[in-house]
Specification:
This protein is 49% helix and 0% strand. It is an all-alpha fold. The longest helix has 23 residues.
Length: 158
Protein backbone atom coordinates (compact mmCIF):
# COMPACT_ATOMS: atom_id res chain seq x y z
CA UNK A 1 0.00 0.00 0.00
CA UNK A 2 1.51 3.35 -1.02
CA UNK A 3 2.42 5.93 1.60
CA UNK A 4 0.77 9.29 2.02
CA UNK A 5 1.06 11.62 -0.96
CA UNK A 6 3.80 14.21 -0.96
CA UNK A 7 2.51 17.66 -0.07
CA UNK A 8 2.53 20.25 -2.83
CA UNK A 9 4.07 23.65 -2.41
CA UNK A 10 1.07 25.84 -3.19
CA UNK A 11 3.06 29.07 -3.28
CA UNK A 12 3.54 30.58 -6.71
CA UNK A 13 6.96 31.48 -8.01
CA UNK A 14 8.27 34.87 -7.06
CA UNK A 15 8.40 36.13 -10.64
CA UNK A 16 10.37 39.32 -9.93
CA UNK A 17 13.06 37.30 -8.10
CA UNK A 18 13.17 34.76 -10.95
CA UNK A 19 13.60 37.57 -13.47
CA UNK A 20 16.35 39.23 -11.38
CA UNK A 21 18.22 35.94 -11.10
CA UNK A 22 17.96 35.43 -14.86
CA UNK A 23 19.21 38.96 -15.59
CA UNK A 24 22.16 38.44 -13.22
CA UNK A 25 22.92 35.14 -14.94
CA UNK A 26 22.87 36.79 -18.38
CA UNK A 27 24.62 40.01 -17.31
CA UNK A 28 26.89 39.33 -14.31
CA UNK A 29 28.54 42.75 -14.76
CA UNK A 30 25.35 44.50 -13.58
CA UNK A 31 25.52 43.02 -10.06
CA UNK A 32 26.25 45.56 -7.31
CA UNK A 33 28.27 44.88 -4.19
CA UNK A 34 24.99 44.14 -2.39
CA UNK A 35 23.94 41.60 -5.02
CA UNK A 36 21.28 43.85 -6.54
CA UNK A 37 20.86 45.03 -10.12
CA UNK A 38 22.50 48.23 -11.32
CA UNK A 39 20.10 49.40 -14.01
CA UNK A 40 22.56 51.95 -15.42
CA UNK A 41 25.08 49.16 -16.00
CA UNK A 42 22.32 47.05 -17.55
CA UNK A 43 21.45 49.89 -19.91
CA UNK A 44 25.13 50.22 -20.88
CA UNK A 45 25.35 46.45 -21.45
CA UNK A 46 22.34 46.71 -23.77
CA UNK A 47 23.87 49.61 -25.67
CA UNK A 48 21.63 52.34 -24.27
CA UNK A 49 22.79 55.84 -23.39
CA UNK A 50 23.29 56.52 -19.70
CA UNK A 51 23.88 59.82 -17.92
CA UNK A 52 27.26 59.25 -16.28
CA UNK A 53 27.01 62.58 -14.43
CA UNK A 54 25.46 60.99 -11.34
CA UNK A 55 27.81 60.80 -8.40
CA UNK A 56 28.54 57.33 -7.13
CA UNK A 57 31.50 55.06 -6.60
CA UNK A 58 33.00 53.73 -9.80
CA UNK A 59 35.45 54.37 -12.59
CA UNK A 60 33.94 57.12 -14.69
CA UNK A 61 35.51 59.38 -17.25
CA UNK A 62 34.25 61.65 -19.99
CA UNK A 63 33.48 59.53 -23.04
CA UNK A 64 32.93 56.25 -21.18
CA UNK A 65 29.37 55.89 -22.52
CA UNK A 66 30.64 56.61 -26.05
CA UNK A 67 33.29 53.94 -25.57
CA UNK A 68 30.64 51.36 -24.59
CA UNK A 69 28.57 52.31 -27.63
CA UNK A 70 31.59 51.95 -29.90
CA UNK A 71 32.61 48.51 -28.65
CA UNK A 72 29.03 47.24 -28.83
CA UNK A 73 28.44 48.42 -32.39
CA UNK A 74 28.47 45.56 -34.87
CA UNK A 75 31.69 45.38 -36.82
CA UNK A 76 31.57 45.48 -40.60
CA UNK A 77 35.17 44.32 -40.83
CA UNK A 78 36.22 40.84 -41.75
CA UNK A 79 39.44 38.99 -41.12
CA UNK A 80 40.30 37.20 -44.36
CA UNK A 81 43.21 34.83 -44.84
CA UNK A 82 45.61 35.45 -47.71
CA UNK A 83 47.09 32.01 -48.49
CA UNK A 84 48.97 33.29 -51.55
CA UNK A 85 50.88 35.81 -49.40
CA UNK A 86 51.53 33.36 -46.57
CA UNK A 87 54.39 31.06 -45.70
CA UNK A 88 53.27 27.52 -44.86
CA UNK A 89 49.65 28.66 -44.65
CA UNK A 90 48.24 25.22 -43.75
CA UNK A 91 50.65 24.50 -40.90
CA UNK A 92 51.56 27.86 -39.35
CA UNK A 93 50.17 29.04 -36.05
CA UNK A 94 51.11 32.67 -36.66
CA UNK A 95 49.22 35.55 -38.25
CA UNK A 96 50.05 38.92 -39.73
CA UNK A 97 47.07 41.23 -39.54
CA UNK A 98 46.68 44.63 -41.18
CA UNK A 99 43.97 47.14 -40.34
CA UNK A 100 42.67 49.73 -37.90
CA UNK A 101 44.09 48.90 -34.44
CA UNK A 102 40.86 49.11 -32.45
CA UNK A 103 38.86 47.22 -35.05
CA UNK A 104 41.47 44.47 -35.36
CA UNK A 105 41.89 44.10 -31.60
CA UNK A 106 38.12 43.90 -31.17
CA UNK A 107 37.79 41.22 -33.86
CA UNK A 108 40.67 39.20 -32.42
CA UNK A 109 39.30 39.47 -28.89
CA UNK A 110 35.79 38.42 -29.98
CA UNK A 111 37.22 35.54 -32.01
CA UNK A 112 39.13 34.32 -28.94
CA UNK A 113 42.54 34.73 -30.58
CA UNK A 114 43.64 37.76 -28.54
CA UNK A 115 43.45 37.47 -24.78
CA UNK A 116 43.14 40.26 -22.27
CA UNK A 117 46.78 40.03 -21.20
CA UNK A 118 48.00 40.95 -24.71
CA UNK A 119 45.47 43.77 -24.98
CA UNK A 120 46.65 45.14 -21.61
CA UNK A 121 50.33 44.82 -22.61
CA UNK A 122 49.77 46.65 -25.89
CA UNK A 123 47.67 49.34 -24.17
CA UNK A 124 50.40 49.86 -21.56
CA UNK A 125 53.04 50.08 -24.28
CA UNK A 126 51.02 52.69 -26.19
CA UNK A 127 50.40 54.64 -22.97
CA UNK A 128 54.11 54.72 -22.11
CA UNK A 129 55.01 55.54 -25.70
CA UNK A 130 52.70 58.57 -25.73
CA UNK A 131 53.21 59.92 -22.22
CA UNK A 132 56.82 59.32 -21.21
CA UNK A 133 59.57 61.57 -22.58
CA UNK A 134 61.47 59.51 -25.12
CA UNK A 135 58.54 57.10 -25.37
CA UNK A 136 58.69 57.15 -29.15
CA UNK A 137 62.06 55.40 -28.92
CA UNK A 138 60.60 52.81 -26.59
CA UNK A 139 57.87 52.17 -29.17
CA UNK A 140 60.44 51.74 -31.90
CA UNK A 141 62.56 49.38 -29.81
CA UNK A 142 59.46 47.36 -28.85
CA UNK A 143 58.39 47.24 -32.52
CA UNK A 144 61.81 45.99 -33.57
CA UNK A 145 61.75 43.46 -30.73
CA UNK A 146 58.30 42.16 -31.68
CA UNK A 147 59.39 42.06 -35.34
CA UNK A 148 62.48 39.99 -34.50
CA UNK A 149 60.39 37.71 -32.33
CA UNK A 150 58.00 37.22 -35.27
CA UNK A 151 60.88 36.42 -37.63
CA UNK A 152 62.20 33.92 -35.10
CA UNK A 153 58.78 32.26 -34.91
CA UNK A 154 58.56 32.14 -38.72
CA UNK A 155 62.00 30.57 -39.04
CA UNK A 156 61.23 28.06 -36.32
CA UNK A 157 57.95 27.09 -38.07
CA UNK A 158 59.68 26.30 -41.36
Amino acid sequence: MPGPPEPFDLRSHNLPDDKRRELLRLFPEVRTEGGKLDFDRLKLALGETVDVGKERYGMNWPGKADCFRTIQAPSLATLRPAPEESVNFDTTENLIIEGDNLEVLLLLFVAGVMNLAWVALLAALVLVERTVPGGAWLGRVAGIGFGLWGVRLLLRAT
